[in-house]
Amino acid sequence: MNFDYTEEHLMIKQAARDFARKLEADVIERDRTATYPTAHVKEMAELGFLGMMIDPKYGGGGMDSLSYAIAIEEISKIDSSVAVIMSVHNSLVSYGVEKYGSEEQKQKFLPRMATGEHIGAFLLSEPEAGSDATSQKTLAEDKGDHYLLNGTKNWITSADNSSIYLVIAQTHPDKKHHGINVLIVDRHSPGISLGAHEDKMGMRSSDTHSVMFTDVKVPKANRLGEDGFGFTFAMKALEAGRIGIAAQATGIAAGAYERALHYSKERKSFGRLICEHQAIAFKLAEMYLKIENARNLVHKAAWLKDNNKPYSLAGSMAKLYAADIAMEVTTEAVQIHGGYGYVKEYHVERLMREAKLTQIYEGTSEIQKIVISRSLIKQK
Amino acid sequence: MKILVCISNVPDTTTRIKLSSDQNAIDLSNVQWIINPWDELALTRALELKESSGGSIESVSIIHVGNAGSEATLRKALAIGADDAMRVDAAPADAYAVAHEIAEAVKDKNFDLILCGIESSDYNGSAMGGMLAEFLNMESVSSVSKLEIEGAEIKLNREIAGGYEVIAAQAPVIAIVQKGIAIEPRIPSMRGIMMARKKPLVVVPATGAKALTEFVHYTPPQPKAACKMIAADNPAELVNLLHNEAKII
After folding, report:
1. Interhelix angle for A230-264 vs A348-358, to 10°?
2. What residues have CB less than 8 Å from A361, skipping those under 6 apart?
3. ipTM computed for the complex
4. Would the CB atoms of A49 and B190 count as touching at under 8 Å?
5. Domain B2-216 homologous superfamily, CATH
6. CA distance A293 to B100
7. In angstroms, rounded to a whole number, what is the distance separating the alpha carbons of residues A38 and B190?
């Protein structure tokens, strides 16, 4: 066993922290106006955060999942909108293309994804297929040399600001989920239109839309894997994505805790600093313990993935636990701040709004419990 | 042209300094180490110059006097973009010893421009750069807040009372730089971090230069007294307290 970070891990943590400090300047305003962080995403790309796990032969940083989890956590302490743009691009889209794409597809798409010139979006959810991802209504009809896409996708992160879509769609409805494919689609293809910008509760600086496909032609060469691989692909990509979202939830909790600790050491009531009141001190102790537990689960899942061991169970546990404690810790952080916590200037109400989404997206907490319990029951 | 940047390894500027129980040493346990902020700005400017030189600046090297424990700080400088590093293997005893060791290590290496931060944020000695220039018998300019290379000429702005003077120098020269030399330090890129271990970090044996000074004793500053608030409409009380309690008027 070794719990030490390497020198590189520490450098990545500091680099992510230094980058995140720059986000703080306008994070409240971007949240209020739901403005996409264009300049920050550009800098994030220049620093290599958007290609950090891609193999250096395709222009990436070649870093492990633990490095990625460390970076996501630091950025999420300040701004989860930027973190989710990074997470979807890295651990769903880039990971998916690199792990399951052909050499030709990797050479065509990865270099520009590594530099952030292409930002990725992952299109799985539908109006009537959220957790029930097998009931895909979007059709990818086989037309010989191309697929013809028709249908609607919902809740798509970076729908407007990405250039590469990974679209999950049904080709053979009679084969049910074995008939589903995954296609790499140019976001600017004719026939693609976006629904309104969703007016979200949190992570308001990332853009979320529904996406409509009307007779969109996709070359057959853009299909990832064999015919019918789409559903397995989506599940595998989400398995990897959970580590990123679990790290994000841990970061949201840690960011709220750090602000609450700082506040409790400055604010006085009844003649003492509020951190000296047991009511507050015990809250801080519990918050810290939960964050440490979440981080250990995230890092273990990342370690398993980096060592090519099965990580589905560990990833689901990390995501379930980190998302739940993010909600608890941010709520307590608001409580410690009292009235100040309820106004935007102190950040913790925003972190509380952001935390809620981590229990919902990339597999709800309830889905994680299904994954975990099924995995336990299957074990001998 | 070859540039050298001198790097000092210092405690993070937010470190709460603790003294040993006999107050004869600083307790360095649990300290996070960083590149001295002025040296980091010097490195940033050196990299900017190299990138805009169109190839005429062939390399930016760094040098440091310190023990093996400071190599993480040097690798961060490599991750930010320095091409190679030298570590003179000796504890940095004082400015004289450090300047002497650096001079011995680089005297035959023909650097055209050497950049030093104006001071280090730990002991704030402000002496190393000038001493290095003497040991190397090189021209030096201090308090440099702007540095441009125009052909064979190096233009430096030197801060003086009420303004600055512009100095034109020829290589080789030592510039002792301060705030303003670069806007903000760079964050290392992910690729830079991965490349850092592949760049040369050469350990140079020390020549055994002796320090001219020694630290005898440390005394922490007096803790700040509690702030007393006086109502704005009560100047008489203010005068009374300044006169009778603080005894400064």
Report:
1. 160
2. A155, A245
3. 0.90
4. yes
5. HUPs (3.40.50.620)
6. 50
7. 20
Q: Which residues of B touch A67 (CB under 8 A)?
A: 190
Q: Which CATH number is A7-114 given? A: 1.10.540.10
For A71, the closest chain B residue by CA position comes to: B190
pLDDT lower than 50: segments of chain B: none
Residue type, B49: L
User: A238-378 has which CATH code?
Assistant: 1.20.140.10
Residue A48 to residue B75, Cβ atoms within 8 A: no
Chain A residues with beta carbon closer than 8 angstroms to that of B75? 7, 11
Closest residue in chain A to residue B195, using alpha carbons only: A61
Say if domain A120-231 classifies as CATH 2.40.110.10: yes
Q: Say whether pLDDT at A380 is over 80.
A: no
CA distance A378 to chain B (A): 40
Q: Which residues of B touch A7 (CB under 8 A)?
A: 72, 75
- Residues B18, B26: contact at Cβ < 8 Å? yes
Segments making up each domain of chain A, as ranges: 7-114, 120-231, 238-378
% residues pLDDT > 70 (chain A): 100
C-alpha closest to that of A197 among A188, A207, A187, A205: A207
Cβ distance A70 to A248 under 8 Å? Answer: no
* Six-digit token string for B151: 């052909």
Count, residues in chain A: 380
What is the C-alpha to C-alpha distance for residues A208 and A28, in angstroms, rounded to an integer? 18
